[in-house]
Predict the structure.
Amino acid sequence: MWVFLVTEIMFFGALFTSYIVYRSLHSFAFAEASRQLDITLGTINTAVLISSSFTMATAVYYAQTGKKRMIIVFLALTILLGLVFIGIKVYEYYQKYVEHFVPGSSFSFPAPYAREAEMFFTLYFAMTGLHALHMIVGVGLLTWLVIFAERGRFTPAYHSPVELTGLYWHFVDIIWIFLYPLLYLIGRHLE
Amino acid sequence: MHTEASIEQPRVHYLNADYGWKSWLFTTDHKRIGILYLVSITLFFFLGGFFAALVRLELATPAGDLVSSETYNKLFSMHGIIMIFFFLIPSIPAVLGNFLVPLMIGARDVAFPRLNLLSWYLFNLGGLFMLYAVLHGGVDTGWTFYTPYSSNFANTNVVATIAAIFIAGFSSILTGLNFIVTIHSMRAPGMTWFRLPLFIWALYATSIIQVLGTPVVAITLTLVAAERLLHLGVFDPAYGGDPILFQHLFWFYSHPAVYIMVLPSMGVVSELVATFTRKNVYGYKFVAFSSMAIAVFGFLVWGHHMFVSGQSVYAGMVFSFLSYAVAIPSAIKVFNWTATLHKASVSYQTPMLYAFGFIGLFTIGGLTGLFVAALGVDIHVTDTYFVIAHFHYIMVGGAVMGYLGGLHYWWPKISGRMYPEGWAKLSALIVFVGFNLTFFPQFLLGYMGMPRRYHAYPPEFQVLNVMSSAGATILGVGYILPMIYLIWSMRYGPKASANPWPSTGLEWQTSSPPPTENFGDTPVMNVEPYDFPTLASGRNRAQLGSEPRPA
């Protein structure tokens, strides 16, 4: 599992590299575009995700101690928080669509940074999209865990699926911890 | 040598345990998955070879008379993409590695058998996308997919090809991940890290590259596909993008990918040299660590593909220096193999002929690699046939030689039959002669300035080009022969004993072909690797369960 997460880091790594290069090339445009993101929703989502990591860790703890009821409760809470995150993300995407910030023919942004801002939003959608995809996979995995926990498969002796899914969930969480300042906060420090 | 009658083979083994097609397509036996891969990549090898044949046929005459320049672009692109992503990268790891990793470390199977089967299906799904792209007019970007041509201008099946590479890439990642976990956690009792066969060390290094590098090229090519489909501008200067960034990201994987192709071959050659000289490989630890060093350095040299791209001169100097540094672990291997040969009684059987071929051709390929790693020389030979010849010496002269050598060496274990030695020696010789005739003239052509990727050339280059095309024909015969006699030997070859060469690895301690569960009892490795003196003294070295287990 650790090896797989290394693969994932490299997967996101290429996107982060692209981001760093273009950010240094077009720092003002990126700051300007970053200011168009909804900081409130971004911050709420960060809080939601960190809470979900807490509930996930608690679920792993109860898996280790073998309390079936509590495993299911905290897995379900994690799923709920994950869905809230995805829901808010979808709403943000919708906002961007309404405001013509989706890259492509309908994109519009005030001069002089139109082109560079489009690049920012391309990377924004690529990075958060890939992240959201991982969230959806994570929710799927958690649902599968709930079904197995319901059947009483997890015991203190055998609970590695819960632990490994936990690792994965924390990883996806950490990716967001990096995405949030890079995408939402860079505009603020220039004000 | 044993006589046929005295050879005992198990009545039930992994090949005849079950015959139905389901028992193959749903198998989780690493040995059967290895065979499945063998079938898949052989098909792609001959498809890629077919395109190479058309390329060489076109280049037999100076005028571009056989195909149009557009078709020619597609031919060399599809040759490169198929050979690299669908033959060379999976060749040794997925076929020989799958078959041998558990056997060599004394395990029953790989760590994740179902994941292993999934990776074969992913490979074939990627292969289907590739075939779709080929059949619907092909792709013409070259195997490098350089932007902005691939993202904005090419009118061919770029997206389907990228999807093919993306999916096949995941099969490669899963195989690498599986091997890393298997080697870490499933070694037999007594099989310490420094008792691992050198082939395992090489595959371990390869797996690390696969796991670290492949995701980068996957996401990079996905961005190219997104740019084409959604009209974005990730690498388009008109949007503030940078096409050079694509080259950086692409070569960050694709240079290490060269080591994915050649490191396993080096591992095979280490095994062959030890077996056919009946000596431990000189400097075992140096050879083992040089594999790791190549894997690490391999990630730091990608910029030497971009000396003429306009990157800064200082970056160029650093990349040039680091590229020279890779020569050190590579040279350690070559010198240690030759030191092993010193005062040894070498038996010149077919696998050893391939090993000699590898050492010679890899040395030429490696030394010319130093030419192109030098900033000044590279500017002269960039995008000429010199580069083509250089990397074919590494990839075909190196990787394919090692693959064929390994296939012959372990064929008795895989099939339970011996291949016909006379035919095999002949075809090894044909491959060697054909290869050199094909690619040595290309060094000269490149040095005289013939650029790559053109379907026509000035008449004064014709003699060397005809030599090269003639060599390619001979090489083709050399590749078709083994396919014929290996298939023939599966039915008519003499039966192989458990340890026909003989050699010391754990894989030779079980019967040929091995039973589905590999070993009757868990083997115990209680001697050093390549311990030929003990083998010669007739004592049963790695005891198969008959020795008291270490506490």
